Amino acid sequence: MATSVHAATQKAGRLLPWPSAFLVLPFVLPADTRKDLPTQSVHSMSAWLNRTSQHQAAFAQRAAALTEYTRASLRTAARHHAIDVTASGLRCPRAPKPASAAASEEVADCARRAGLVGRWLAVVDPSLAFNLLGVRP
């Protein structure tokens, strides 16, 4: 979660709206979705969704299923001072460890893709992102 928040704030120069955090895990945890994510953020989220409509169709159900995991992730990150939750949004007080320091290649891949998703979410209004993905807050 901290990787996404950090990437978003670096990209946009502003805090990540906290509802956007609920979109991160459904992108990076399912292996099939993660595998199809681009490696660089030169592609927009909407362009990627147009090319991979199968992920868009499954996204709302995955987001709902991962809501409690997202809440737990936010609580854990806040408790360990990896993110700050403010009224204006989420921020990362320090840069997260690089993905190369992860315990496994899968964890490192999740961290790299979380950074990409964070950069996407930095430039998309949360209501538009939720709408594109078929998720109802």
What descriptive keywords fit this protein?
globular; 4% strand; single chain; two-stranded antiparallel ribbon; mainly alpha; 8 helices; 2 strands; 137 residues; 59% helix
What would you call the shape?
globular
Summarize the amount of helix as a percent range: 55-70%
- Sheet-strand content, in percent, reads under 5%
Tally the helices.
8
Largest sheet: 2 strands, antiparallel
The radius of gyration is: 14 Å
What is the mean predicted local confidence, pLDDT?
91
Could you give the count of β-strands?
Answer: 2
**In terms of per-residue confidence, which ranges show pLDDT below 50 for 5 or more consecutive residues?**
none
Largest sheet, spatial ordering of strands: 1-2
N-to-C series of helices and strands: HHHHHHEEHH
Category from helices, strands and their pairing: mainly alpha
> What's the end-to-end separation, in Å?
19 Å
